[in-house]
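Q: My labmate handed me this sequence with no annotations at all. I'd like to see what the chain might look like in three dimensions before we decide whether it's worth expressing. Could you predict it?
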Amino acid sequence: MQKEAILLNGGYCNSLTQYSRFVTREVQIGDTPMGAHHPIRVQSMTTTDTMDTIGTVEQTIRMVESGCEYIRITAPSIKEAENLGNIKKELRLRGYNVPLVADIHFTPNAAEVAARIVEKVRVNPGNYADKKKFESIDYTDAAYQAELNRIYDKFSPLVKICKEYGTAMRIGTNHGSLSDRIMSRYGDTPLGMVESAMEFIRMCEDLNYYNLVISMKASNTQVMVQAYRLLVQTMVKEGMNYPLHLGVTEAGDGEDGRIKSAVGIGTLLADGLGDTIRVSLTEDPEFEAPVARALANRFEKSRSLKVGTLESELITHNPQLVTYNPFQYHRRTTTEVENLGGHQVPRVIINLEKENLKDPAILNAVGFNYSALLDKYNLSDQACDMVYLGDALPSFSFPGGLKQLYNYQTWLGLADQQNCHPLFNLADFRSAEVKDDKLNFVKVLAEDLEVEQLIGLDKVVLMLTTAAENAMQTIRHAFTKLLAADLKIPIIIERNFDGLSLEDFQLYSSTDLGGLLIDGFGDGIFINADGISLSVINSTSFGILQATRTRISKTEYISCPSCGRTLFDLQETTQAIRARTSHLKGIKIGIMGCIVNGPGEMADADYGYVGAGVDRITLYRGQEVVKKNVKTANAIDELIGIIQEDGNWIPPVGS
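A: Here is what I predict for the chain of 655 residues:
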């Protein structure tokens, strides 16, 4: 991928170390405009049957009162599209003037009805007038253009209706529902996602329609971030600056859903991208808006909006500064030092210096479960790799596989330095006469990093930290310096998140550390957070690595947030599947309420559980259908049977 128009923040700002928002055009959606200088807006989606007018209205009100500014409602057919008028009327009678968004898949006729009623329609270019049968087709240029002409004829009536009624439109690409046509030419890639949207944008502009919002959603955070970045670069090259709606599809629930959403959405917000956001949780929809608002508020408080032409925010390619490709994941190459860096997975360090170091049970919280009866430790799949003890000395023996990190002077005084390593500042390391002959840690402030001082360091891992408010950009800038100098020293990223609520801690740490890991930066993470329990810090650390696909330590659930198309209880089903399969480390299971994104997102999962009708489930292996029309009561057992047939089943501990 050429880098001639890459913006230096690893995203789309005009500075490596300052946050500024990518300036987009204003789009009017009812009485709540977005883009341009407006605040980041929050959207969510109802889960009720759209034909249930009162149920949908009451859920919408709960969503609005939780902070939601746009309400998306599914319209799978003309009858649901027509009922949007009744829902809108009832909401207005109750005093709620919230803009409604009709969600359309497969049915252009429903879209044309809805566009006359609601403030915005969402169309998916992968299935609006295209198809997905997982067929590979070798198109000639003429045949490909003929397909575009066919789509233009199918799509243009909707565009003309939107122009006439002043209705906005979101062109929402989903990684899981790219058409066979796009897949055949561009593959299952961020480029394919971008081109899928750009084709529809160009058609809209040909019809002089510009009231557009664009999204690039995926359940894989790496793909999602790369697609949005590439979209912006592509739009800029074509003189466009449409506002962006951000979201991670099928993020899941609880801690996992929040971490995964923050990794994807937060990374892009830090890049200065995003005008509306939706956090897609497999929970009641009113729980989504507060999470989205917390992410948005962090950047609303510190943003410095640049005024002027779009071109003024671009920085021309400079090989001395642009040292990595933000459109494709490639982990920074480092030299391995004692299982840190190189091809090793990113490591997790936990701070124990303020804990009770007289009781070995303290290690239970970080994955080393101590048995007093047997006087031994049992390791979980999320056992941390190292603990920081500072100047504190434990009165019990640590597990043999757990490294200990001490401040340098304390380390010097240890009678037994086996598995123990020193932490220096740079000046002390250079002047020290005694060093560890295997592994030394040197702490450096990212804003003070000078590569000349690091040349020639041996048996060293840097611990890179910052006190800057714009922490991610500051640390990313330091990494670009190391890349430009071709220094291959492994890096542990240290961040402090003191004084935060539990949810803000999860969101902020996932944004700051996840964004760096997605760009290939970091050989380990070290999170400090006063007031947050050790177990939460440990699980969040591993959750961030899992969400960025840099280290897998548990089963991953690609679980959709439900909508009016869903014909079973997604929350209950997700929990039931999790209860039976959560011990299958490394397995990815997709749990989808309907066919819309199901088969496509199965391409990113090992197994899939997809709603096919009332009391009927289709089971997948990857994107291949294995069993159809399975009764819901038997579906989980049948799913486990498929996993067993493939040799991927491991009996739960104690079974």
